[in-house]
Design a protein that fits this description.
single chain; about 90 residues; mainly alpha; 2 helices; elongated; membrane; transmembrane; transmembrane helix; Integral membrane protein
Amino acid sequence: MLLHEFRPGRLLAGLTALALAALYAGDLAGAWTTPWYAVVPVLCGGLGTAALATWVAYRIRRRSARSRSSESTGAPASSSGSQAIR
């Protein structure tokens, strides 16, 4: 059993942040030279991909919830009658 549901958009946003950190850490260590404007395409591409993954996951969850609700029997939540309006 999972403790929480999987969020692929958050995973991709975190990986984007880690990639940017690694990119500039390599520049700081002197392994390579990274121009200052390299953050723009990496950040925009990563966050755009994260947004797309979030949208797709939302649509999948919504579709599966809709199919589960249509399979219900329609029984009332309580059949004891204790919540009846007098």
